[in-house]
Design goal:
alpha+beta; 2 domains; three-stranded antiparallel sheet
Length: about 300
């Protein structure tokens, strides 16, 4: 598990590339989760807990397992330019690195399975596997085509985005419709408009939450309900840290339109005057098994819908 998935070598760092590629550097630094792949609180916490568990640390190869995908330990700036493009040649002019490393590696970066080396873990993280099942394969629409669009495109960032950095990324990709209250039952549809992968697209630590608030005429909350969407896992017994089994999968699948139903307490009849529906993301450590009350990170609402009764 600690086998490095990128070309090893001494990394000069993103600042080195920034001198000529300022715009790309800014997109990566400001928008990409890659830029904090070794410094995010969730990652640092995993590394710390690995060190606390001697047996698990030995079995998994220690923190090297994290750095195998999350970027070189020496540079400690996540998935930087050289992680994907290859490390610059030591003691050589930059244009020599362009010709002998970056230019030669460029075709590999465009292959449909390039990102899968780190972003596909069968059973846990499966965006590449999801994509392989769609008709986008025949159309030639790859991960890079959407997530690393050209600067002229609608999503001009260099590197994969994340709700932890850009909380508007799913703004038009998720919707709530046909919200109806036929007391005591509330029904609605939630839809994932993304045609390439499920939501949340990441592993068991990422959770999409639908939060429903029922209010009276003065806007006071009378009742709350909701639903969460994720791949839930059980942590390893005794060691109590590493997820080893998916026990429930409520992830919104590719292009899925899912009906939901909620039953209200009888004492609320005639009192509900408005309903607020909110979609937001949570990031939860493995050890908490999907408990959003113990989340590392809670996003701002990515969708808010108000219904008057």
């Amino acid at each position: 598990m600690n086998e490095v998935r990128y070309e090893s070598g001494e990394h000069k760092g993103a600042e080195y590339c920034k001198t000529c590629h300022q715009k790309i550097y800014t997109e990566w630094k400001n928008n990409s989760r890659h830029a904090i792949a070794t410094t995010a609180e969730s990652v640092r916490d995993v590394m710390h807990k690995l060190k606390e568990h001697t047996i698990l640390n030995y079995i998994l190869g220690g923190e090297d397992m994290c750095y195998a995908c999350h970027g070189p330990k020496a540079a400690n700036e996540g998935i930087n330019c050289e992680t994907c493009h290859g490390p610059a040649l030591p003691n050589a002019p930059i244009m020599e690195s362009h010709e002998k490393v970056f230019k030669l590696n460029k075709p590999a970066l465009k292959k449909d399975d390039f990102c899968a080396k780190c972003h596909e873990i069968p059973g846990w993280v499966t965006p590449y596997g999801d994509w392989k099942k769609t008709n986008l394969v025949e159309q030639g629409i790859t991960c890079q085509g959407c997530h690393m669009a050209s600067p002229e495109g609608s999503r001009a960032y260099h590197g994969f985005d994340s709700f932890a950095i850009n909380q508007t990324i799913y703004k038009n990709d998720l919707s709530l419709s046909d919200v109806r209250l036929n007391f005591p039952t509330l029904t609605l549809n939630i839809e994932n408009h993304i045609k390439a992968h499920g939501v949340p697209a990441g592993g068991p630590t990422r959770i999409l939450s639908l939060e429903i608030s029922f209010k009276d005429g003065q806007g006071k909350q009378l009742h709350k309900d909701g639903e969460t969407f994720a791949k839930y896992h059980r942590v390893m017994p005794v060691l109590g840290f590493w997820p080893y089994e998916i026990i429930a999968d409520t992830q919104l699948k590719t292009g899925e339109r899912r009906p939901l139903s909620f039953t209200l307490p009888s004492e609320l009849k005639g009192r509900i005057k408005s309903i607020q529906l909110v979609l937001r993301f949570y990031e939860v450590a493995d050890e908490h098994e999907g408990d959003i009350a113990k989340a590392y990170f809670v996003s701002e609402p990515i969708l808010v819908k108000e219904i008057r009764i």
